[in-house]
Design brief:
Largest sheet: 4 strands, antiparallel
CATH superfamily of the largest domain: Lrp/AsnC effector binding domain/regulation of amino acid metabolism (RAM) domain
Strand order of the largest sheet: 2-3-1-4
Number of strands: 4
Oligomer: single chain
Number of domains: 2
CATH topology of the largest domain: Alpha-Beta Plaits
């Protein structure tokens, strides 16, 4: 499988929100047939785009997860394209547009520092990304 299209990204996004969603519900949500969802899932899995399915755990219950905030600068008018590419990375849990020196704030989670390093390399190599700055989140403070 080559470049992800909008349907692939929407499917990945829906699975991020609820990885246990049925194929029927995914098809209805995406406005396509179940056969299309099954075919896309198979393609995403076979190509290695989807590495597996997992659960989301509250940060305080999984303190070894590597969590980070990455500030991203995008050159020219490439923000929409950069967001579309970022949506395809399963480690990304949220993307925010912002004002000021940075164009995007990206929240990410990985299981290991090696995975974190790989994802950072992917973000920095995205077309249009000109600069980034990342802060690891060490612990959350209750308000």
């Amino acid at each position: 499988m080559g470049v992800l299209d909008d349907l692939d990204r929407a499917l990945i996004s829906a699975l991020r929100a609820n990885g246990r969603e049925s194929v029927t519900a995914l098809a209805k949500h995406l406005g396509v047939t179940r056969a299309t969802v099954n075919a896309r899932l198979k393609g995403l899995i076979d190509s290695g785009t989807i590495l597996g399915f997992s659960v989301r755990v509250r940060a305080e219950h999984d303190p070894d997860t590597v969590r980070a905030i990455t500030l991203v600068e995008v050159g020219g008018r490439s923000t929409t394209q950069a967001i579309a590419q970022l949506r395809g990375l399963p480690e990304i849990v949220a993307i925010h547009t912002t004002n000021g020196a940075w164009d995007l704030v990206v929240e990410l989670r990985t299981g290991t520092l090696a995975d974190f390093d790989r994802v950072m390399g992917q973000i920095r190599s995205l077309q249009g990304v000109t600069n980034s700055e990342t802060s690891l989140l060490l612990r959350s403070v209750q308000l």
